[in-house]
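Key idea: predict the complex, not the pieces.
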Amino acid sequence: MRFTAWQHEKDVTTISISEASQHENQPVELHGWLYNLRKSGKIVFPILRDGTGLMQCVAVKANLPEQVFESLKGATQESSLIVRGTVRKEPRAPGGYELDVTDAQIVQRVPEEHPYPITPKDHGVDFLMDHRHLWLRSRRQHAAIRVRHEIIRGIRDYFDSHGFTLVDTPIFTPAACEGTTTLFEVDYFDDEKVYLTQSGQLYNEANAMAFGKVYCFGPTFRAEKSKTRRHLTEFWMVEPEMAWADLEEVKRVAEELVVSLVQRVLENRKEELKTLERDTSKLEKVASPFPRMSYDEAVKILQSKGSEIQWGGDFGNTDETLLTQDFDRPVIVDRFPTEIKAFYFQTDPQRPEVALGVDFIAPEGYGEIIGGGQRIHDLALLETRLQEHNLPREAFEWYLDLRRFGSVPHGGFGMGVERFVAWMCGLEHVRETIPYPRMLYRTRP
RNA sequence: UCCUCAGUAGCUCAACGGUAGAGCAUUCGGCUGUUAACCGAAGGGUUGUAGGUUCGAAUCCUACCUGAGGAGCCA
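Result:
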């Protein structure tokens, strides 16, 4: 590629656009892609994109060799190029700095017979999703993925600095964690049916008995026929699990995690939130303590607001929105009916009809972002639950072992990364919070 | 799986029973401060597919395909 023919000048530093402010009035070299181009006769304004930001360049015909000026003037959207010039403070330019071009080379020119498909105008969802590999270059998508990165870093930092050990759980699993209707079957292993994990939960419990406090963080898979703005078939979930923890401790840790993540995004991703036009005043109100209520209370509140819900039923999406509409921070609901919760939840010793499970429901209609609770530590109770749920005991022998060899009260939760990112970014749909979303009718690119 | 809505130029849309149109993108021309730049011109169409109704269908009817939103289920 002609890139190699580009003469390096030793007094010119190659910088990224995000570093421009530190190089005011200095000659620099930028490597990037043409985001947009405006031209006006003998002056052209190429806007360069390099993954760290946007830089408006100014190329004046009179100051440049003919060939350089003409190549910039005829450059097409998303062509890759190298530009050399002097950084100058310029209030008129987006970003506050501008580059006075002294030299430029197009590395690969996008041919006009196949122009870059995503223009600076409006596009539909279907078209953009078909071009997801290119759509990621757009400002809003770029910003959302950077917020995602910040949240993932924040999750790791939080657990790593609070005594948790990362102990990842397998993706191929032989049995269901919860139901059996939402599993992806993998037809490969000779001796038995294997499925893609829908939760690392059961393994996490074993890990917690080995390490005390653990978390796993990876993709999970749900074969649900869900077609809504809150669902992906492949999504990322972080699941901490703690030995010697009860329901209150689970709630405390989850709340502390949420607060730390919101703070971190607000501090480190201001620019991205601005690009996304996120109303950050709503996020600034997310502080401890979060409102807490029992399932019983939640049902009463919902009924008073006109919901059809009866005690024993699960919340629908409209119920979640109703429940959170009077609050500016996530609502913590606990003690759900035992019947609607997974088999492994500890029941309330005073009220066996309710399980020590907890959900965090995000405000602004973003729904359930965290689900967790205290697990059964009593062998006899767990055996009973397995029977009640018609689960094959043999497959759970190892899980029962955890109650035979030094059982302790323990608990944890799972947090869906994409829903959290959607909430932080104020996005309509979780598909924009993951680089390549996998959904019911979309597996490409 | 069910319910609702939508498929017209590369893209976003208009035309709603009577000759298929605009903006953006692309090409050519003009412009030394543009901010989704602007001005002028050109090329670009089997109206998702298959039937049907009609003198005449992008438009009305039927089936199918594709997509979107929602329900249930869930993070």
